[in-house]
Amino acid sequence: MVDSILLNPIYIIGIGLGTSFILGFFKSGRFQAHPSAMHSERIKTAPWVLMIGALTVMTFISAEWLWSFLFNGQLPQQIYTAGFEPPFSINLLMGRNEAFFTLMVNLVGLLSGLYLLDKFKEMGTHALSVYLVLIMGLNGIIMTRDIFNLFVFLEIASIATAGLIVMTSDVKALSAGFKYMIATGLISGFLLIGIIFAYYFGGSLNIDSLAEANLTTVQGGVFAVFLIVVSLLLELKPFPANGWGIDAYEASPVGINAVISSASAGATYYVLSKVLIITDAKWYAVTAVVGIITFLGSNLMGIKQTNAKRMLGYSSVGQVGLLLVILGLSEQLGNSFKFIIFGIMMSHYLAKAGLFWLVGIVKTGILKDWGILRKKPVLVFFMGTFIFALLGLPPFPSFFAKWTLVLTLSAAGLNLWVGLILFGSLIEAVYLFRWFGYVLKLDADKERSLSTPFYRTFPVWLFGLLSYYIGYVASVMVPGGETLGMFYLPLAFVGFLFIIDRYLPVWVKNTLSMAAMALYGWYYMAGLSEFRMLFAIIFIGGGIVTMIAGYAKSGKRVGFYPFVVMMYIGLGGLLLSENILQFFISWELMTLGSYVLIIRGKKSMPHALSYMMFSLGGAFLILAGFGLAFAGSGVSSISLDILKNVTRYSGLIYTFLAIGFMTKTAVIGLHIWLPGAHAEAESDVSPMVSAILLKAGMFGLVVLMLAMGSQSLGGVSLPYLLGWLGAITALLGNLMAAFQEDAKRLLAYSSVGQLGYVVFAMAFMSHLGWLTALAFALNHFVFKALLFLAIGGVVMRTKTKTMYEMGGLIKRMPLSFISVLIGIIALSGLPPLTGFAGKWLSYNAVIEKGWYFQGFLVSIAGLVAFLYCFRLIHVIFLGQPKDKFKNIKEAPIAMLIPQYILIGVIMLFSLMPNMVLKPIGEFLVQYFPDGALQWDGGTAVSSLGRWSGVAIMNITIGIFGTILIWLLFMSRKAVKVKQFNIFYSGEAPSRPELTHYGYNFFAPYKKAVGFLVQPLVTRFWDGIADILHSISDFVRRLYNGNGQMYAFQVILFVVVFSIFTIG
Amino acid sequence: MVRKIFVIILLIGLGWFFYGMADSFHGSDSLNMTASYYAENGAEEVGAANLVTAIVVTYRGLDTLGEVTILFLTAAIAAFFLKSKEEFSKRDVKPSSELLQTAAGMLVPLIFVLGVYVFVNGHLSPGGGFQGGAIIASGLVLLLLSKPLQKVNSRFFALVESFSGLFYVGIGVAGIFLAGGFLDNSILPLGEFGTLLSAGILPVIYILVGLKVGSELSGLLTKFQETQEEN
Amino acid sequence: MTFEPIQIAWTLLGLFIVFNVGLLLTSTVRKIGARVGKRRGIRFFQPHIDLIKNYSFRTNFSHGIMFYLAPVFRLTGGIGIFVFMPIIYGSAHFSNFSFAGDAILIMYFIFFGTLGMALGAGEGAMPFSAIGISRGLSQVTAAEIPLVLAFLAVFIQNNSFSITEIVAAQQGGFLNWTMFTNPIATITAMLAFLGAMMRSPFDIVLAPQEIPVGPPTEFHSSFLGVLSTNRAIFPIAKTILYINLFFGGATNWPVLILKAFLLYMWSVVVGTVFPRFRTEQSIRWFMKYPLILGILSILVLQLG
Amino acid sequence: MLSVIIIIALTILVLAAAILAVQTTNLVVAVISAGLVSLMASVGYLFLSAPDVAMTEAAIGSGLSTIIFFYVLNRVRGKDHG
Amino acid sequence: MDFGLVAVVVGFLLILIGIWGILTQKNIVKIVIGFSIFDTGLHAIMVGIGYLKGRTAPILDSAVSPADALTSIVDPVPQALVLTAIVIGLGVTALMLAYVVRLYDYRKSLDISSYEDLKW
What we know:
The complex is a heteropentamer.
Chain C: H1 6-36, H2 46-56, E1 61-62, H3 65-83, H4 103-123, H5 127-158, H6 163-169, H7 178-181, H8 183-197, H9 215-218, H10 221-246, H11 253-273, H12 279-286, H13 289-303
Chain D: H1 2-23, H2 27-47, H3 51-76
Chain E: H1 3-24, H2 28-50, H3 69-72, H4 76-107
Helix pairs in contact in E: 1-2, 2-4
């Protein structure tokens, strides 16, 4: 129990006020413009120390209360003023919520106070008083239970805010402050009318008494309720009547807008939530509607912003909108309401304050100048933390909150809300990730330095670390949180990697990471079976093999290994998941890790952004799908098995999940992120993201299809659609690959095509189909990793990815050449190598299923694959070597080792396909008993034909060897001739550039079928982006900067709102 | 013009809404629950004849504290960003007329006394801290008008303001220890109803409020006065 | 069916026959062409002589490892098609190594040689070779598009990939041939066949006038010998595939050779009648009528 | 009855002064009118049995506010606005 | 005639007039004047709400004894609130005027459309 005398919550107010009055004893400091008035350092610091002391005590009191509420079973306490009981005197309440919110306010107040040290020194004691009063006022807003008293505290807060806005003392801030005053003046006027009418109709000013008075049932009382609600909503800056608020965000000094965003918004939000008890259900619904409009509208506005503060302002308003939605739907959310609010609120609070603080450290609002933050990698880390937290990615509290929100809303049948919330979140992600991309990629101004005094970085550190801690707390609280233990140890290792990241050389970290992954695989994956085991081999085994290439790097490679390991943990987590929560967390972890890996590439900024957008879009669809499944299964369980028991919405669930997973497999239409992302990534990242990561989507499809079988939507069989989609993807992906000039892009498009095969084959929902798909998947992993590594090695040496600039490299890089040769033979499915297995199986499956035309498309895709395969090897390795690459070396040994391991795998698989395919077939029989493949030793026998890998291999090698020996014998005297010793009508060309035919290699093809590869999809998505941007640009003209316009909007909001609610 | 038409349409909408509100207002025949309580118990519990004062200072004392805080804020903000001329001597202002100066010399002390009277008697008669404070401030205006050359000591106002504010908060906190809660009136005996020294701590508070409001308003005015010289 | 070493001998025998037939067909075709042009033409054994001559040359001229591998790939491709295919229906000796795979294997093995050739030509570093390859690959893959449809139609019709089974289904009179049971597929296949044979109008790949150099010039002596060997075997092997799938197969050597000759002549006749296409023209051509016919052939099966 | 007449007169005057205050282009007139609105309102409050409010409105609303307005007017007038 | 109702109606009208001023006047001093009229309207409404017909001020003196206060005084609560509101209104007005002065210092203009620096 808290001592109610010594730690009376009223002291928060008393101390705040008293200290600011004491500050009046100090001589006021003045502007810098008057240096004569500057006082000595110590005198200037003393008031600041006093204020910090006061804030510390205030923080301590609310912390103490929260502590006793949480752990000592403290009961809520009423604080009566003037010694009389409410409703006749003003009373305050200190309950669990109040303790929580005041702690939030005071903590951010304290830290911002710390952060603003030099600013305060410059501005003097008046500013300190005003600041302290602001914090005090916010505390009052939270605790008071009297509605007029609330008005007074709101006025205090808004006047103090207006005062602090002008602390920057430029004309922009002044005009913003003036607009802010006009708007808040009007709003508080309306609030006052509402209050006095509430008093008239309810006979009291006490909120609890007013609640008993049932104002909404009194004729006329509804006006009072309307005005109170609308003014409080307006205080929360609802879209579109919020231009004044946005300007204020932009104009106010950075420490201050941290307070406005985190603390004021939180406090005002809490006020609304406590005042809403005087209303009825209708007003909750109204709040939710206003909230969603604000959430969507503000985030839309955010897209067009170029100034960090303004953008964060929009984001803040949007987040508050989301909180309003949740508040408005609190009835439907039931028991989860508090948890959801807690999660979203905490994330917003920590992240927004942190980001605003960072704005002050970077000292510029211009987003494109933010590259300078890279001088302090720790701050970049925290910035990422905040952005991820804001967007609801794990392991941050908002993730768990959004998760619960979606599940609960779905269970309540509020699917439209789910859709809108997720859509808004996606828009928000657009600009936040774009910003993060700028930070990570754009060149910094070399001249500028980044000053990071302790008092500025400390708050950022604290809130950054708190985000993780609160995330942990939320993860324990979320239903199903007890099953998240599987992430703790692996993620702890990621944390460890972060800590050592800046100190150890790359080979140490590479070794550590590989060892960790091996252990991870050993301890966590050993018990897996069937599909999961198969994918574990690809994910973890493949991951380790590709990581060998990391030894080729030198230096420290800061910011690489934690994310690699995180990605693999995510991938592994997918396999270990038993419930949808684990699955979704893993999915997001994987996305996060891979995003950072992808953006590390030199030119990958836009591609990483589109990767993230598609991934998040996909993740949200998955989330929506899980939500529907949770609702549709009828059992309140989060086990993955609910997918099997779905009784409602099954078509929708299937569609959502399938599309969500297919954003990762990059099916046509959702593929535009892939080529850039894979092509621009670093040479050892490309194989990871292309060969391994894409399989995550496939695994998702496996889980989905096994659980739900075939579903249909609107009478159309979804697997049938998937089949077509996969086939078209295969064809178009390969065609596009054939026309690339960029080697890695070619491989990337090839991945699109290959994954098209996989989707196509899975859609068969038959034994052979799935066997095909799995064979494809394994093969694709092996040869794509091989090719990307080999090409990566070449690119590393030549420093270019454009194929026609290379040529003749076979002489310099023979080992890489062999890798590529084996790789393309496997890829194009030529016998005797392993790729043929997939082809053969797919023909069997096609005939068996009767999907002839789809099969036909896939066959053509195979032919086209042949084209680009040849192009890849020819243009890079054959032809005339260029002068500038005359002396380049073979790829580093570290890159070659994994390549030859993979070649070994290919050879083994080619010789003994039964070794792999037979066990797969055996477990597939459980799911698809019909049409299984028979094995006659090493020969596969289907109802249609037969295929003996061993025999083909042996015969081919026999013929090949014989002829080779014969030829070698015949031309045993031949020696290699010089480069230009070719028959050229007697004239040797002088430049190798003239003799290397590599550009637009398949020109005739392009002429003939180029119309098929028009970038329609890209144009479609660009169009969507353009439309969003145009809407954003158009709507933001509302905010024309004119104070009267803003006032007009505020009043219009009131009028329109009244028409909709009581009119 | 288009803009005005829009505004007119908007105001018609708002007017229609206000019409609805005014229409729902029928006046009252008797005091409502809260007001009745004050009417019945105010005199007894607080001991102030002026019920408005009783409410303002005691029952809703926190509001008043907030309100003086707002004035404090305003004064602080104005002081903060209405920058004063440091070089006071340089200004070139016509001295005001002899008559005004003499009148001011006589009137200002009277006005100050009146102001003090108003807030000392706030618990008995109409008026109180705010009104008294405002009167004091108006006296200051007269002073400023008559003697523009005289440098007004804004430090003095600041000190008075801080002292009274601090005492106010201090009394409030003392209520927690000595009586029923923050700003409890009964830490002093209520005294005899209707006399100057009655109503517990209320008069003291109102005096502090008066001092505070007066000094804040004066400070504010001084700041605005000081801007006059910047040209 | 299990593997017995003696099969190697029988396969080699078959290979030898096919090899000679291929060479003779080449000379016959040229002779016919010459006679039509009122010339004498080459001797029937001229290809044999050329081949022997090529093999007996000794070269000291090489462009590197791939230069060796290309002809090897090429010939392996040609021989591979042959050895994985049953030649004579019902003959235990001339079923070759068809136990190892089926028609799908052969479809894909065709590309084995193509790839090797292309690689070798690339290694020769002659830019015209690369142009030729670009054209060749484009055209071959385009020609394969209708071909795949035609093959699919046959597979669907017989519900099998096994060439032996497909041939078996065509026994008992020529009306059982796919040619008559599924004429559309056959027409499609024959149109696609033209593209694969690289004769006019689809001979721009070799383009003897415009591109006087390229693989045939860079490769010489025994390299060229290996390639020429393949030119004898490969077309015949491919023709045999068509015979097996569409024309009832063959139960003895004379029938096989007759059918092969007729099929071969089909491309020759067309070639003498039609002028040459540019590459993109030929691609477009394959994507028009043959493609439509191919789709039709499958539709007929699906609906019928 | 007298009070009713006074109230009606006050009402009309208040509204007229208010309209004048917002419509006139002369800032001095506007400020004075606004002060008048307050002053008449404070008279009205007396009729509404609110002497405290009346005093406050008179001292603050019509008194101090107007003074501050004039300080500001003095500060900004004569340069580009009347 | 109910003076309370009159005060409420006049208050609403003043509010409308004030808003008219705020929304249509270009001069920022006029906007602030609009505000002060808006505020006056608010206060009038509040006082009007607390008025009870025929009752006296809520001051207990010789005329009104504490015993019959219940039946003879008007509602003191709105009056108390108005006191607070007036002082707050003064604070807001003063602050706005301070803004006016500072804005004027920067741009030498009183036109609100000169201060559209932050937008979109």
